[in-house]
Specification:
The chain has a single domain, classed as Ribosomal Protein S8, Chain: A, domain 1, CATH 3.30.1370.60. Helices cover about 40% and strands about 15% of the residues. It has ten helices and twelve strands. The protein has helices at about 15-30, 35-50, 60-70, 95-115, 130-140, 195-200, 240-260, 290-305, 320-330, 340-350, and strands at about 10-15, 80-85, 85-90, 115-125, 145-150, 170-175, 180-185, 210, 220, 230-235, 275-280, 335.
Length: about 350
């Protein structure tokens, strides 16, 4: 008999138990063993880092997509163009985490040889938490840039407009330092679709006016997305300086849909992503040691900065997530209480028990 946790409790689970459970669910939905393992690991890593809207919270949606055929379970990507430092793939609607994993397998050795290596992927499915992939690149000593857009979806209006044109359009950069990896994972919008959906489902509102209704009025109520015409998420900078987020969103669209040659100008195929990845090997430029010397100096100047609030300190992007990851690997992953109830029906169909809390 399966039991779920009360909705207000964040129970802790062994990461290996969550990994095994997620892998079994994906495999039961028709995904082969390797793809299931990669996707499950990526989602669990998202929760380990504290990105709990982009970890196992995505799994129920992924399983539904596998069942409906929106996410393909078999086959591989197609290489559309191949040059020494670049490739362009058709992702064939396969799982995004698996495609990114395969992409890094290709890009890391090419960047070592050539200094820089880039990949654009059209027709990928959703790629989950971008910060997860940065860890692998940083461990390899690389600087990584990763961007993603979903051409089938729109929830962010251009600055000065009221109708959605773009998605939150995340862009991420990661690089190593002697003080730990820096993982920058941001969006061109103030918040994300995932957080907006979670707030709406829970009957909650945002603490600030991060959204806008169709008449251009700022609001903190995610129910504006259910209105007709629907509301939108404000770009970074909000109503005052949203031109900055708008510009960042356009940059992501150029890197993804523009370079992949597939995006908003094409027929919608459902939830997915167009992706851009570039890896830089510091040894091809000023050298790894001087890269670390420069970034260590900068990092030191930041974290030793006089704090604005007494008793606090400057925190580098990714620092809290990596510390939380280490803690949760030891003490258990504290799952958002909505996750296991959403997965219970899939587990029941496969006669699987839900993971047991610590």
């Amino acid at each position: 008999m399966m039991h779920t946790q009360p909705s207000t409790v964040r129970a802790a689970f062994r990461s290996d138990d969550l990994l095994g459970f997620a892998t079994q669910l994906l495999n039961g939905a028709g995904l082969d063993a390797h793809k299931s393992s990669v996707v499950a690991r990526t989602l669990v890593e998202g929760d380990l880092l504290g990105h709990d809207t982009h970890g196992l919270a995505l799994l129920a949606g992924y399983l539904k997509e596998l069942e409906s055929g929106g996410m393909q379970s078999q086959g591989s990507y197609r290489i559309m163009r191949d040059k020494p430092a670049t490739q362009m793939w058709d992702g064939m609607r396969l799982p995004g985490p698996w495609l990114i994993d395969q992409g890094l397998d290709v890009l890391i050795p090419r960047a070592r040889e050539l200094g820089v290596a880039s990949l654009a992927i059209r027709r990928s499915h959703h790629i989950a938490c971008l910060a997860v992939y940065l860890m692998r690149a940083a461990k390899a000593g690389m600087l990584m840039v990763l961007a993603s857009s979903d051409p089938a979806s729109a929830s962010v209006a251009p600055y000065g407009g009221t109708q959605a044109v773009m998605t939150p359009n995340p862009i991420a950069m990661g690089f190593p330092t002697s003080r730990g990896d820096v993982l920058i994972d941001i969006s061109a919008s103030i918040t994300t679709n995932g957080m907006s959906n979670r707030k709406a489902a829970a009957g909650e509102k945002f603490a600030e006016n991060w959204l806008m209704d169709a008449q251009g009025n700022p609001t903190n109520d995610p129910n504006v997305f259910a209105q007709q015409p629907p509301g939108t998420i404000l770009p970074v900078g909000g109503l005052s300086y949203g031109h900055k987020g708008f510009g960042l969103g356009l940059m992501v669209e150029a890197l993804t849909g523009g370079l992949a040659g597939w995006g908003r100008a094409d027929p919608k195929e459902g939830w997915g992503a167009t992706v851009h990845i570039t890896l830089y090997d510091p040894d091809a430029f000023g050298g790894q040691s001087d890269f670390l010397r420069q970034m260590d100096h900068l990092v030191g100047s930041c974290i030793n900065n006089v704090p604005r609030i007494a008793g606090s300190k400057v925190r580098l992007p990714g620092q809290a997530g990596l510390a939380l990851r280490a803690q949760q690997l030891e003490q258990g992953v504290r799952l958002h209480p909505a996750i296991l109830p959403a997965l219970a029906p899939f587990a029941t169909r496969l006669s699987l028990d839900l993971p047991v809390a610590l």
